[in-house]
Amino acid sequence: MSVTTRSARRARAAGLALGVALDAALGDPRRFHPVAGFGAVANRLEAVTYADRRAAGIAHVGLLVGAVALTGDLLERAVRERPAARALVTAAATWTVLGGTTLVREAESIQARLGGSCGPVSNRSQRTPATR
Q: What is the pTM of this model?
């Protein structure tokens, strides 16, 4: 493995770890959430392009996914030779899409409404259906 490949992998791993840590420390923003912004863009695009045809739906999804993929690719190319910048871009992307803190908060809220009958939220993934 080349030094460049190793450096890129380390930067990616550091960025993933930092993104998870950011999610744990900051959670999701209450205002101007990037995923909510994406949803708003998707709604505006749909208002302009909607048609009750499969091809229109495919084009709608293709434009949205294509724009996100192109943005990611351009960012990746821009930081290719700079490991610290690559780690920061990876961290930002990871924090943007992870939402783990919010998911745990919502799961705990649902658990509370169910009267806590489901056991601890943190242990749910470790239990099989047969042990519930």
A: 0.72
